[in-house]
Structure formats: C-alpha cells, structure tokens
Amino acid sequence: MKFFEKLMKIDRRIIYLILALVVIVPFLRPFMIHPKAMPPVENLYNYIDSIPPDKALVISVDYTPDTEPELQPMTIALLRHAFARRIKVGVLTLGVLGLGLAENALTQVANEFNQRATTREDSIIYGRDYVFWGWQTPALTVILGMGERISRVFSVDYYGNKTETLPMMQKIKNYNNVGIVVSVSASATPLWYITYGQTSFGIKVGIASTAVQAADMYPYLNSGQATGLLSGMKGGAEYEELVQTRLGITGRRRATEAMAAQTSAHFTIIAFIIIGNIGFFALRRRKK
C-alpha cells in the first residue's frame, strides 16, 4: 500500500516532465504509423482521383502561420496527389497571410517531382500543370467572380504574369472547368464556398480543417454539401498514407511524424489515468 500512497502524492512536475519527453522523443527519433483512412478522407481522395483531364483541382490556402504545422501537410499531400495523377491545379488564398505558405508548398512539391523527372513531359511546369493565382479581396467577390471568369478576378497571377496568357488557363475559365475546390482552413472559410460558390454555381467543395474546427464541418459533410473532410493532424496523416500506398509517392510525411508524438502522448495519459484509478481504489479499500 505504501507504493500506492507514494503514487498518489507524486509531484505533478514529474508527470509534466514524462509527458514532455514522450512528445519530444518521437520528433527526434520518429517511428512511422500507418493510419487507416476514414470514409470522409477516402471520399475526398477518390473524388479528386476521378477528376477528368479537362478539369482542375482548386486549392484555397485559407490558413495562417499559426496553424501551419497542422494544415500545411494537407496542402502538400493534395498537391502530391494531383501532380502524380497529372491533374491541373489552381491555387489561391483568401487571406494575404496564406501567400507565403501556398508558395512554399507549391515550390516544395514541384521540386520533388522535377528531381525525379527525366523529360519535359515528366516535369511539373508552371503555367502548364499548375497556376498560383495569388490573393484578391473581398472574399465574396472572389468566390462568386470565379464562377463567371477566373481571369477577371485574377487578371495577373502571383508572379505578375497575365493569367489569360498561361497555357493552363486556355481551358480553365470558371467553375465549369473545375472538378472540386478544396478549402484548407482553420476558420469557417470552407462554408463560404458552400454558401456562395456551391449554391450559385454547383461547384463541389472539399474541406481540410484543424481538428478543433472540424466539429462545425460535419453537418455539411453529412448533408452531402461537402464531398470529403480532412480533420486535423489525423486527417492529414490518413491522406498522406493514401497518396503513398496507392500512388507510390514518397516524401517527408509531416502529419504522420506528428501523429507519432500525439499517439505516444495519448497512450501515456491513458496509462496515467489507469494507474491513478488503481491507486485511488486501492487506498479507498484500505481505509474501509
């Protein structure tokens, strides 16, 4: 019983130290987990995978640096999927702080594919395979304007090129030429695409959100207004797993790496709860 008495009086700072080590060590020496994709993730993957050659995937990078660790891996996984399947990609952001994050993701994934390419046809070429439209405001004007003509909303791209002169934009005029818009966001931005873009033009909408925001998105998923949902780090890791196992696309999987630390922390907390309850009931029985 003395063991349980000491256990119940353990300094909480020791528990915090153990948790800190449990979280830090997997980042230093990561172990790979292989999460099973849940239906909301698999539905989004399958829909993007079926986009016909004459339509594009549009990714709206609607997050800021504070949520980059959770959401940037989703953007990277979406780009890997699209580039591997040779799906045209248009990228924009409804917030100015998303510009650098979008460019970093595009540059990273394009470089990954181009390092493996042996011919021009194998390469990922700006203007032919993807376009970074950049940022415009207000958001409502952007979402509705893209349903009429994208080049009117973004007359020049992020790099200053006239949008209409880019080869990809000769066929991608408006939402009629877009397979789906995926809004990667830490806020209610995906609902703007549903409320205005989908209601007015019938565009399909996919959602990639932080875990804390996902609860607000499930009603739209369950109603069929959202084609699929990536929820938090777990959703990103599941999508990374699908891209690697089904397409053979390798690369650093940041969401999966983070899930290793998260999983270790969860198991440790569960162990503490079990041990604490055993000690509590053992001491209570002794008092009786």
Task: Write structural notes for this entry.
The structure is a single chain. Helix 2 packs antiparallel against helix 11. This protein is elongated. The protein has eleven helices and six strands. It folds into two domains: 1-32 and 255-288; 35-252, Rossmann fold. With 288 residues, it is α/β, with parallel strands linked by helices. It has a six-stranded parallel beta sheet with strand order 3-2-1-4-5-6, with helices on both faces. 56% of the residues lie in helices and 13% in strands. The mean pLDDT is 92.
State the share of residues found in helices, binned by percent: 55-70%
Provide the CATH topology of the largest domain. Rossmann fold
Label the overall shape. elongated
Number of DSSP helices? 11
Total E-strand runs: 6
The CATH class label of the largest domain is Alpha Beta
How many domain regions?
A: 2
For the largest beta-sheet, the strand count, sense and barrel status come to: 6 strands, parallel
Low-confidence stretches: none
